[in-house]
């Protein structure tokens, strides 16, 4: 399946990556996680996030009692590993060859992790799109509006789907309501990986 769906300005490329490409990405991400281990960020309100995270690139996204921001180092002190070439290739094909992302955030959802509705607004320049790659179990993606609340639309993101959020969609509220364990054979345990590439500054 290779079709593009458009929901509220989000371009969803269904089945953009074939199984071999997905497996290669998972291997590359395993390398990232070996160099920069997954951690459970603390929200500024003092509640740990359900999603475990790490990053690759010049910057990584972190959250703690001081707030959400980009940092040049992992909380344990190491520099973030480089963004894998396989990820940059997808960005090059769908976003730009002129400018590569500064950050590839790696989100890992276990069977009961979710991500509440939020905006991505920690970047300096919203004119660059955000690109997201889904791997592993399906996740129910909810798309809202430019302000909190209002009607929403939901879509199941499957392994190999790529989403590009640009233009008016860049500041749209979004979240992951739940994942559906056992819907993919890609990972060796239930779970979902999402890669989010962003230009930061
Ligand atoms: C819409 N991640 O890390 S990716 C995030 O599946 C995040 O892990 C979700 O939201 C996930 O911030 C959803 C889709 C996504 C990513 C960035 C966006 C949608 C976006 C930025 C602007 C608008
Ligand atoms: Fe987001």
TrEMBL record:
Domain of life: Bacteria
Cofactor binding comment, as recorded: Binds 1 Fe(2+) ion per subunit.
All copies of domain Fe2OG dioxygenase, residue ranges: 100-201
Cofactor(s) the record lists: Fe(2+)
UniProt-listed InterPro entries: Alkb, AlkB-like, AlkB-like_sf, Oxoglu/Fe-dep_dioxygenase_dom
Binding of Fe cation, residues: 118, 120, 174
Binding site for substrate: 61, 68-70, 122, 148
GO cellular component: cytoplasm
Residues holding 2-oxoglutarate: 107-109, 192-198
GO molecular function, one term: ferrous iron binding
Database matches in PROSITE patterns: FE2OG_OXY (PS51471)
Alphabetical GO biological process terms: oxidative RNA demethylation
Keyword entries, A-Z: Dioxygenase, Iron, Metal-binding, Oxidoreductase
The name this protein goes by in its record: Dioxygenase
Organism field: Roseovarius atlanticus
């Amino acid at each position: 399946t290779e079709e593009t769906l458009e929901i509220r300005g989000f371009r969803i490329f269904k089945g953009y990556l074939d199984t071999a490409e997905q497996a290669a990405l998972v291997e590359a991400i395993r390398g990232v996680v070996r160099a920069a281990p997954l951690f459970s960020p603390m929200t500024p309100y003092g509640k740990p996030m359900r999603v475990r995270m790490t990053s690759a690139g010049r910057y990584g996204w972190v959250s703690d009692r001081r707030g959400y921001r980009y940092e040049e180092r992992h909380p344990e002190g190491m520099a973030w590993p480089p963004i894998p070439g396989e990820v940059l290739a997808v960005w090059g094909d769908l976003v730009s060859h002129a400018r590569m992302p500064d950050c590839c955030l790696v989100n890992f959802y276990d069977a009961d992790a979710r991500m509440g509705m939020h905006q991505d607004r920690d970047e300096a320049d919203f004119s660059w799109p955000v690109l997201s790659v889904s791997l592993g179990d399906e996740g129910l993606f909810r798309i809202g509006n430019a302000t909190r609340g209002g009607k929403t639309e939901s879509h199941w993101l499957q392994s190999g789907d790529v989403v590009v959020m640009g233009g008016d969609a860049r500041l749209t509220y979004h979240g992951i309501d739940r994942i559906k364990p056992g819907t993919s054979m890609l990972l060796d345990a239930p779970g979902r990986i999402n890669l989010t590439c962003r230009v930061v500054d």
